[in-house]
Amino acid sequence: MKYSPWSQDAARLLLATLRDEKGPVLMALQLMQKEFGYVDPACVPLIANYFNKSRADVHGVLTFYHDLRTTPPGEHQISICVAEACQAVGARALEKEAKAQFGAEVTDSYCFGNCALGPAVMVDGTLIGRATLAKIEKARS
Amino acid sequence: MRVFVPGDSAAISIGADEVAARISKLDPTVTIVRNGSRGALWLETLVEVDTDSGRIAYGPVMPDDVQSLFDADFLKGGAHPLALGKTDDIEWLASQERVTFARVGIIDPLSLDEYRQHGGLVGLKSALGLTSEAIINEVTQSGLRGRGGAGFPAGIKWKTVAQTNSAQKYICCNADEGDSGTFADRMLIEGDPFTLIEGMTIAAIAVGATQGIVYLRSEYPHAISILQNAIEIAREFGWLGDRVLDSTHSFDIQIRVGAGSYVCGEETAMLESIEGKRGVVRAKPPLPAIEGLFGQPTVINNVLTLSTVPMVIAQGAAAYKARGVGRSLGTQVFQLGGNIARGGIVEKAFGVTLKELLDTYGAGTLSGKPFRAVQIGGPLGAYFSTQQLETSMDYESLIAAGGMLGHGGVVVFDDSVDLAVQAKFAMEFCAIESCGKCTPCRIGSTRGAETIDLIIKGVRVDENKKLLLDLCEVMTDGSLCAMGGLTPMPVKSAMVNFPSDFLGAAK
Known about the structure:
heterodimer; A: alpha+beta; Glutaredoxin; 2 domains; iron (chain A)
């Protein structure tokens, strides 16, 4: 996935699009991540100032949600569902194999709503049903 | 010539896009409709051809099957090993009672014309001619209860909001379908988004709200994009925005996307999240119906609840409540998942037995091994054993059996499952997803996982089982919301229904 390089100026322009939103902090953080691939720590004071919140407020939101990350992502993101329905069809074994092969690219997730066609894996934003290591590898390339 | 290839994300996950692309390539004159899924996910990709005698189905079609379908002249309904005959005659589908899911899989999800041809907007148009009291009365009379899991009567919630004075009221649709084993909200939004928009609009007219918000989880990118398109189409049509369908009402809908937090499916945590804050649960009272989003009166309903409303108004309360048992009226959209041969959506009147769902529809496990356990109602729901298959699937019977209906997810496990490991996972999941407000949930979940680990390892098993049950009691009684309050349900049901998995080293 392609992201823009982090830039304060670009970030400010993006925040301006949320000026009329009620309760904009989470949306702002999500927007930063969508654009830059992660939430740069410099976003915290930026968002706090822009929306008249404390830095603690913004930091609190940033650290609460599993989706939000504060470091740039790698080239590939492999997210394996390890919730019950996928566990029932071997997600734990797949998780182990995938972590052995793809290391830090792999993260756990809980449910993509594909529970009748598990194991479910999201590779760079594409959902794979009845996932196998081979299917993950193919989607990753 | 129209060919239907589902654009549902489950179908896409096993190759529907590639199937559609290959059909187009082999015959560019074919019009491909990306319908929702019929719900028979075990038949995906289910390709349907529109013929003079009705829609003919083929499935499950893999991309490599496409050439042979053309060789068999499937566009004329030709014979093929994957041919299933008329879609309407497939027993798995024909024996269901589709009410909420009536249009899903049948229409093009983003065609307002098809939506109207199949009964869409009838409910809203008749609601526009009714008083607020009459709409709410109809919903109350129908017996429609909250499909998110709590089962609270929808009409009573609406009445509270209607009677609370405020210049600004909100309709919040909870589409944070985080329970493992549930996917009905996603499939409804992807397959028939206008139904949800119609239900929200009717709710808005009934209670006097002007703004709707759909809190939709980030794990559902495809549903987000379909719903966003549907909202824009509804705005252009003069349905959403100022003067809804030329009436005096105004109503618009915004999507707020979740950020990967399970607890935000709890209604007050969801409100906090929509307000842009940490998803920390609020104490009740005040009820959200009185002080909800941004402190204003707010209707919070699940996707399925709101999407059932148009039918209730169009066909009347009596038609809806003619189905079901006891106080569980109407239909429930069950979702069969996990280790199951025929998974997908089964919409049936309340009162169908677990056995019927698993045998008639599920047709055994995917692995072919004997079935051993089934978890009903998501990660906070109980584990049932093969001894409990006669349980009637309705709110009250499931509670009486020590479980709950939840959002209607049914997750099957074969005999390789270890229920002590599943119980430990329930605690671990709670530890990961707890919002942290209540100590029994925040800390109890971690201690619970550790205690189950000791039991698994055979350390002071009897003593630790007693301790675990005590901890479960504290979590149940000492947590504000269902996250900490119901995590003990899978744990205790596993201990009670599968005692042989909790013998420690002795097993």
